Fold Peptidoglycan bridge formation glycyltransferase FemA/FemB family protein.
Amino acid sequence: MSPTLRTISREQHLAYIRSLPSASHMQVPAWGDLKSEWRSESLGWFDGDDKLIGVGLVLYRQLPKVKRYLAYLPEGPVINWFAPNLEEWLRPMLAHLKQQGAFSVKMGPPVVIRRWNAKAIKAGIQDPEVKRLRDVEATQLEPRAFEVADRLRRMGWQQGEDGGAGFGDVQPRYVFQIPLRDRSLEEVHKDFNQLWRRNIKKAEKAGVVVERGDYEDLEEWQRLYEITAERDRFRPRPLSYFQLMWRALNAETASPVEENRMRLYIARHEGEAVAAATMLVVGGHVWYSYGASANHKREVRPSNAMQWQMLRDAHAMGAHVYDMRGIGDILDESDHLFGLIQFKVGTGGEAAEYLGEWDFPLNKLLHKALDIYMSRR
């Protein structure tokens, strides 16, 4: 039987997310509170017995001067993507979004298509013939993911040409993850390369202390984050964004049985904050979300010490994956993102390629206009 779709309450949405092993942090109701320029809505899919079997957080962004919206489901919706009747799940969603005034729909199926272990990536880096991650033979393939992509194309969903570059989508298509399920901390540490293990030891010997921060420590975080933004030439988010993130996400996990949805870690050397990072938690999935560091005292390796502490805490809470988020797919030392993959691959984890983001133009003229506008930004 085809599932039916209707709007649901925050409470229904959150209860469903809590019933799952994990879901993206961008598909919890509180994520909509964080995106203040967008209007948010919770959608629910129901089976024939009126049981909730899927949810989606939709963010609506209004076009200037007209009451038409881009509807965006970041890393969602949270549905059975391998259902043989996938079209019957997505068709009512498109009809509903069109009714709400959407001219275009963007979604990011949380479906992994390929994985590469650290050994395969290192071999690819050393091979002069290999230019991109996709040139390296995957150590794991998900055949059903290719079927999902075929079904989406047949339905009329479109994928941007630049999706394969790793950062062509709004959310990263390629991420780096450290599997924790059924692994001891000793096994995780053993998979670190020699440099990582040496740097963790160096930080310990130098007296680097990693501690959990609180809401009041976000100002200290912001100082380091703005130093990082200037050094790496990106535009930083304001302190108010992280304060709202903390309040919104942690209000959602106020029950004593749940870990805070958002955590802050600060690495100190001789009492001075020299590195900091934010962590997000949904079920068994833990993300290293944002990172920052000072321009000095890098020789005491505070970032390695901090990552190791975050990993240990993730393991202690029973997480099945520690997600270090986005990487580029170019394996060339001259590429500006190469250092990122090199740093992360040292942990001995694996790269994962998601299906990427897909668009459905409900109004082709407005969708095209948006495409032109985004390409000029």
Remarks:
- The chain has two domains: 4-108+357-376, 113-142+155-354.
- The chain is about 35% helix and 25% strand.
- The domain at 113-142+155-354 is CATH 3.40.630.30 (Aminopeptidase).
